[in-house]
Amino acid sequence: MLGREGLPRWVVRFSDIERYEQMSNVALCWWMYGNNIHPVPAHYKYDWWIFWEGAPVDGETLIFNEQYRMNTAEASVLYVRLMSTKTTFFMYNRKRPRQDSANPFDPRAEKWRGVDWAPSLANDPDPVVTEGAWAGHR
Q1: Residues 128, 138 contacting (CB under 8 angstroms)
Q2: Under a CB-based contact definition with an 8 Å cutoff, are residues 89 and 67 in contact?
Q3: 81 phi, psi to nearest 5 deg
Q4: What pLDDT digit, counting tens, does each position of 101-110 carry?
Q5: Mapping DSSP to helix (H, G, I), strand (E, B) and coil, where does residue 124 land?
Q6: Which terminal Cβ of the chain has fewer Cβ within 10 Å, N or C?
Q7: 24-61, pLDDT tens digit by residue?
């Protein structure tokens, strides 16, 4: 659920990390705000923000800031690295429908008014994820 200025209601900050690290027997990766990944890569593009102790900036400065946005391939690499080093981290994402005639969306529908459409999968310049749960996504 989004709060003010389109940010999630709870944005993790550097000062929160220690508290979550103490709960590391529960999880390393915390999904703070995001969408489940649709199984058909041609339907949606996902934009990612991952926050951890090594993140370039704190909380609200990072989350949903275009300067720190990652594509799915970049997020996948960072996810694997943070998991392998047992680093506590927090994931945020947003999905955007793709402009593709094969997808089931009618861009003229009220639901899609004002939406920031992503390029079709074929026209997306981002690299394709080749393995893992997000394989096939860009």
Answers
A1: yes
A2: no
A3: -65, -45
A4: 888 999 899 9
A5: coil
A6: N
A7: 676 788 888 888 999 999 999 999 999 999 999 998 89
